[in-house]
Write a structure and sequence with these properties.
The protein is of the alpha+beta class and 153 residues long. The chain contains 3 helices and 6 strands.
Length: 153
């Protein structure tokens, strides 16, 4: 028997069903509500100052260099050839049909009845499948915890 432990991705994936068999059921919120929360950002008024990014980082104690929301800036040209600045806040949109939920092998990502998509840190194994599935680039693996992290509203 070899004392060497195989740490390859293939070994991890093949062992995952045996290790997480009892965690395979999705987490469920106990709260019931008819409200469906959403966030509206008026990009016509945004000046890309990143104040919302810093406020979110301070409120949620994000690790240094990692942010739950970022305002991306783009140079755009109109049909007349003029160049301007366009801003796009990149945050979790708490999708109606979130693509991050079905890819989670342990059911750590779930959607509450009020529409908020969350990650159960106790279940998350840090595989980052949900990070790859998010079309808004709104998730990351937290360097401090090794778990998926995102906007929690």
């Amino acid at each position: 028997m070899s004392a060497h432990i195989d740490l390859s991705r293939r070994a991890f994936i093949s062992a995952l069903p045996a290790v997480t068999a009892d965690l395979a059921l999705p987490a469920r919120a106990t709260q019931t509500s008819t409200t469906h929360w959403s966030m509206l950002v008026d990009t016509r008024r945004c000046i890309a100052c990143q104040a919302c990014t810093m406020a979110c980082a301070m409120e949620n104690a994000s690790p240094e260099g990692q942010f739950r929301t970022v305002v991306a800036t783009y140079a755009v040209n109109d049909q007349a050839g003029r160049t301007g600045l366009s801003v796009l806040p990149r945050l979790c949109n708490h999708c109606e049909d979130p693509p991050c939920i079905p890819v989670c092998p342990v059911g750590a990502t779930f959607k509450r009845e009020d529409g908020i998509v969350l990650v159960d840190g106790d279940r998350c194994v840090g595989c980052a499948y949900c990070v790859q599935a998010c079309p808004y680039d709104a998730r990351f693996v937290n360097h401090d915890t090794g778990k998926a992290d995102k906007c929690t509203f």
